[in-house]
Design brief:
The chain has helices spanning about 1-35, 45-60, 75-85, 85-105, 130-145, 170-185; strands spanning about 65-75, 110-115, 120-125, 155-160, 190-195. With about 200 residues, the protein is α+β, with helices and mostly antiparallel strands. It has a 5-stranded mixed β-sheet with strand order 2-3-1-4-5, sandwiched between helices. Helix 3 (about 75-85) packs across helix 4. The protein is globular. The relative contact order is 0.15.
Protein backbone atom coordinates (compact mmCIF):
# COMPACT_ATOMS: atom_id res chain seq x y z
CA UNK A 1 0.00 0.00 0.00
CA UNK A 2 2.69 2.59 0.83
CA UNK A 3 4.47 1.67 -2.46
CA UNK A 4 1.25 2.35 -4.42
CA UNK A 5 0.80 5.70 -2.68
CA UNK A 6 4.40 6.68 -3.50
CA UNK A 7 3.94 5.72 -7.18
CA UNK A 8 0.66 7.65 -7.30
CA UNK A 9 2.34 10.69 -5.78
CA UNK A 10 5.12 10.51 -8.37
CA UNK A 11 2.49 10.43 -11.13
CA UNK A 12 0.70 13.57 -9.89
CA UNK A 13 2.77 16.12 -11.87
CA UNK A 14 2.34 14.08 -15.09
CA UNK A 15 -1.41 13.71 -14.54
CA UNK A 16 -1.69 17.42 -13.80
CA UNK A 17 0.11 18.27 -17.07
CA UNK A 18 -2.20 15.96 -19.05
CA UNK A 19 -5.25 17.47 -17.34
CA UNK A 20 -4.03 21.03 -18.05
CA UNK A 21 -3.31 20.22 -21.71
CA UNK A 22 -6.79 18.73 -22.14
CA UNK A 23 -8.35 21.75 -20.43
CA UNK A 24 -6.49 24.15 -22.74
CA UNK A 25 -7.61 22.19 -25.81
CA UNK A 26 -11.23 22.23 -24.63
CA UNK A 27 -11.04 25.96 -23.89
CA UNK A 28 -9.69 26.62 -27.41
CA UNK A 29 -12.55 24.62 -28.90
CA UNK A 30 -15.11 26.52 -26.83
CA UNK A 31 -13.60 29.88 -27.81
CA UNK A 32 -13.77 28.85 -31.48
CA UNK A 33 -17.42 27.81 -31.08
CA UNK A 34 -18.23 31.17 -29.52
CA UNK A 35 -16.36 33.36 -32.02
CA UNK A 36 -16.62 31.52 -35.37
CA UNK A 37 -19.76 31.42 -37.49
CA UNK A 38 -20.59 27.76 -38.05
CA UNK A 39 -21.88 28.10 -41.62
CA UNK A 40 -19.26 30.39 -43.18
CA UNK A 41 -16.34 29.61 -40.82
CA UNK A 42 -15.69 33.34 -40.60
CA UNK A 43 -15.38 35.24 -37.32
CA UNK A 44 -18.72 36.33 -35.91
CA UNK A 45 -19.73 39.47 -34.00
CA UNK A 46 -18.21 38.17 -30.77
CA UNK A 47 -14.80 38.33 -32.44
CA UNK A 48 -15.49 41.38 -34.60
CA UNK A 49 -16.85 43.70 -31.90
CA UNK A 50 -13.84 43.64 -29.52
CA UNK A 51 -11.48 44.31 -32.44
CA UNK A 52 -13.67 47.19 -33.58
CA UNK A 53 -13.79 48.60 -30.03
CA UNK A 54 -9.99 48.40 -29.82
CA UNK A 55 -9.61 50.35 -33.07
CA UNK A 56 -12.19 52.96 -32.05
CA UNK A 57 -10.24 53.49 -28.81
CA UNK A 58 -6.99 53.77 -30.80
CA UNK A 59 -8.64 56.31 -33.08
CA UNK A 60 -9.89 58.41 -30.17
CA UNK A 61 -6.59 58.29 -28.33
CA UNK A 62 -4.00 58.38 -31.12
CA UNK A 63 -5.94 59.32 -34.27
CA UNK A 64 -5.53 55.81 -35.71
CA UNK A 65 -7.17 55.61 -39.15
CA UNK A 66 -9.41 52.74 -40.30
CA UNK A 67 -12.73 52.11 -42.04
CA UNK A 68 -15.57 49.65 -41.63
CA UNK A 69 -17.97 48.29 -44.22
CA UNK A 70 -21.17 46.29 -44.23
CA UNK A 71 -21.80 44.07 -47.26
CA UNK A 72 -25.25 42.72 -48.07
CA UNK A 73 -26.19 40.23 -50.79
CA UNK A 74 -28.76 41.81 -53.11
CA UNK A 75 -32.15 40.08 -53.38
CA UNK A 76 -30.96 37.22 -51.16
CA UNK A 77 -34.50 36.46 -50.00
CA UNK A 78 -35.31 35.65 -53.63
CA UNK A 79 -32.48 33.12 -53.71
CA UNK A 80 -33.82 31.39 -50.60
CA UNK A 81 -37.47 31.57 -51.71
CA UNK A 82 -36.97 30.31 -55.28
CA UNK A 83 -33.91 28.07 -55.03
CA UNK A 84 -34.13 26.92 -51.41
CA UNK A 85 -32.17 27.53 -48.23
CA UNK A 86 -29.49 24.97 -49.08
CA UNK A 87 -28.65 26.97 -52.20
CA UNK A 88 -28.72 30.16 -50.13
CA UNK A 89 -26.30 28.59 -47.67
CA UNK A 90 -24.02 27.61 -50.54
CA UNK A 91 -23.98 31.21 -51.80
CA UNK A 92 -23.15 32.46 -48.29
CA UNK A 93 -20.29 29.98 -47.95
CA UNK A 94 -18.86 30.82 -51.38
CA UNK A 95 -19.11 34.55 -50.77
CA UNK A 96 -17.47 34.21 -47.35
CA UNK A 97 -14.61 32.28 -48.93
CA UNK A 98 -14.23 34.92 -51.66
CA UNK A 99 -14.20 37.80 -49.18
CA UNK A 100 -11.58 36.12 -47.02
CA UNK A 101 -9.44 35.37 -50.08
CA UNK A 102 -9.75 38.90 -51.49
CA UNK A 103 -8.73 40.42 -48.16
CA UNK A 104 -5.85 37.98 -47.79
CA UNK A 105 -4.48 38.88 -51.21
CA UNK A 106 -5.11 42.58 -51.46
CA UNK A 107 -5.14 44.18 -48.05
CA UNK A 108 -3.24 44.25 -44.78
CA UNK A 109 -3.05 41.36 -42.35
CA UNK A 110 -4.94 43.30 -39.65
CA UNK A 111 -8.03 43.59 -41.85
CA UNK A 112 -10.94 41.46 -40.70
CA UNK A 113 -14.03 40.03 -42.38
CA UNK A 114 -16.84 38.62 -40.26
CA UNK A 115 -20.37 37.38 -40.70
CA UNK A 116 -22.50 40.19 -39.36
CA UNK A 117 -25.77 38.25 -39.54
CA UNK A 118 -28.15 36.80 -42.12
CA UNK A 119 -26.73 37.67 -45.55
CA UNK A 120 -24.58 40.50 -44.20
CA UNK A 121 -20.83 40.60 -43.72
CA UNK A 122 -18.74 43.23 -41.92
CA UNK A 123 -15.21 44.35 -42.76
CA UNK A 124 -12.54 46.25 -40.92
CA UNK A 125 -10.04 47.90 -43.26
CA UNK A 126 -7.20 48.88 -40.98
CA UNK A 127 -5.02 51.92 -41.72
CA UNK A 128 -7.46 52.94 -44.49
CA UNK A 129 -9.28 56.25 -44.59
CA UNK A 130 -12.66 56.78 -46.23
CA UNK A 131 -11.25 57.81 -49.62
CA UNK A 132 -8.89 54.83 -49.85
CA UNK A 133 -11.49 52.33 -48.56
CA UNK A 134 -13.46 52.81 -51.76
CA UNK A 135 -10.74 51.12 -53.85
CA UNK A 136 -10.72 47.61 -52.25
CA UNK A 137 -14.49 47.72 -51.69
CA UNK A 138 -15.15 48.47 -55.35
CA UNK A 139 -12.76 45.64 -56.26
CA UNK A 140 -14.76 43.29 -54.02
CA UNK A 141 -18.04 44.42 -55.61
CA UNK A 142 -16.69 43.83 -59.12
CA UNK A 143 -15.24 40.40 -58.31
CA UNK A 144 -18.54 39.22 -56.81
CA UNK A 145 -20.52 40.61 -59.77
CA UNK A 146 -18.36 38.59 -62.20
CA UNK A 147 -18.30 35.40 -60.12
CA UNK A 148 -20.20 32.27 -61.04
CA UNK A 149 -21.99 30.96 -57.99
CA UNK A 150 -23.47 28.08 -60.00
CA UNK A 151 -27.08 28.95 -59.20
CA UNK A 152 -28.26 30.12 -62.62
CA UNK A 153 -28.49 33.78 -61.67
CA UNK A 154 -26.12 36.63 -61.03
CA UNK A 155 -25.17 37.46 -57.45
CA UNK A 156 -24.42 41.07 -56.59
CA UNK A 157 -23.70 42.93 -53.37
CA UNK A 158 -24.32 46.38 -51.94
CA UNK A 159 -21.79 47.97 -49.60
CA UNK A 160 -21.98 50.81 -47.09
CA UNK A 161 -18.81 52.05 -45.44
CA UNK A 162 -17.65 54.61 -42.90
CA UNK A 163 -14.60 55.90 -41.05
CA UNK A 164 -14.76 56.93 -37.38
CA UNK A 165 -15.07 60.46 -36.13
CA UNK A 166 -13.99 61.74 -32.73
CA UNK A 167 -16.11 60.67 -29.75
CA UNK A 168 -18.11 58.22 -31.88
CA UNK A 169 -18.83 54.78 -30.38
CA UNK A 170 -18.45 51.47 -32.22
CA UNK A 171 -22.23 51.20 -32.42
CA UNK A 172 -22.60 54.68 -33.92
CA UNK A 173 -19.89 53.94 -36.48
CA UNK A 174 -21.54 50.70 -37.60
CA UNK A 175 -24.92 52.44 -37.67
CA UNK A 176 -23.55 55.01 -40.14
CA UNK A 177 -22.12 52.22 -42.30
CA UNK A 178 -25.49 50.47 -42.14
CA UNK A 179 -27.34 53.62 -43.23
CA UNK A 180 -24.91 53.97 -46.14
CA UNK A 181 -25.66 50.35 -47.07
CA UNK A 182 -29.39 51.06 -47.16
CA UNK A 183 -28.71 54.09 -49.34
CA UNK A 184 -26.79 51.81 -51.74
CA UNK A 185 -29.80 49.49 -51.87
CA UNK A 186 -32.24 52.36 -52.36
CA UNK A 187 -30.12 53.74 -55.20
CA UNK A 188 -30.21 50.58 -57.30
CA UNK A 189 -28.08 47.97 -55.50
CA UNK A 190 -24.80 46.48 -56.77
CA UNK A 191 -22.98 49.64 -55.69
CA UNK A 192 -21.03 51.10 -52.77
CA UNK A 193 -21.88 54.20 -50.77
CA UNK A 194 -19.86 56.12 -48.19
CA UNK A 195 -21.52 57.17 -44.97
CA UNK A 196 -22.50 60.71 -44.20
CA UNK A 197 -20.19 62.52 -41.79
CA UNK A 198 -21.00 61.89 -38.13
Amino acid sequence: MPRFVTHFQRMQPTLARIRDARQKTENRKLRALCTIDELTELPNRRQFNPELARLVAAHQRYGHVFSVAIIDIDHFKGVNDTLGHLTGDRVLKQLAKQLAEILRKSTRKNDLVARWGGEEFALILDATDLANARIPLERIRQIVEKSDFGIGRQVTISIGFASPSNFESSEQLMDRADRALYRAKAEGRNCIRAAEAA
